[in-house]
């Protein structure tokens, strides 16, 4: 029974370990972030979810809007202080999990007075399994509308869930963290 539980436990722990949301923030230290009070969306040449997942794209844009507005930025059609863009990227990754059962003496040469000289010997087995998963990145950029320079960037990287509700929750948590950092820098 333990031979079935241990490999499953190793897989679960491995997947939990690789699913920690990492949020990175960078900004122009010379920019006066408190001077910005209006924003508008700008087009981006980088890929977004607009074509690959239009529903998730709409939810992401709506949630970013909601969070920026809650942070005292007003969305306008013309003459904004800053432009907002977002883009995504994903890549397939492979995780290898090896489970060993049994015992062994290693593979080196040794001399044992009772057995004589010889190569190491052991009685064990190992099984290696490969798990493929998608790691995605979400980047939110805020550009000064007058100078056309990047003044703030928030980025998140995590394992992407196949379940749309879990993916949405992950994106919302990342946006919460990123916009919280934006708001704290504006104070």
What does this entry look like structurally?
The chain is elongated. The chain is built from three helices and eight strands; from the N terminus they run αββαββββββα. 16% of the residues are buried. Helix 2 links the parallel strand 2 and strand 3. The chain has 187 residues and is α/β, with parallel strands linked by helices. It has a six-stranded mixed β-sheet with strand order 1-8-7-4-2-3. Strands 5-6 form a two-stranded antiparallel ribbon. The N terminus is likely disordered. The protein starts with a helix and ends with a helix.
Summary of the model, kept short:
The chain is of the alpha/beta class and 187 residues long. The protein has helices spanning 2-17, 54-70, 164-185, and strands at residues 22-27, 38-41, 74-75, 82-104, 109-112, 116-119, 122-144, 150-159. The chain has a six-stranded mixed beta sheet.
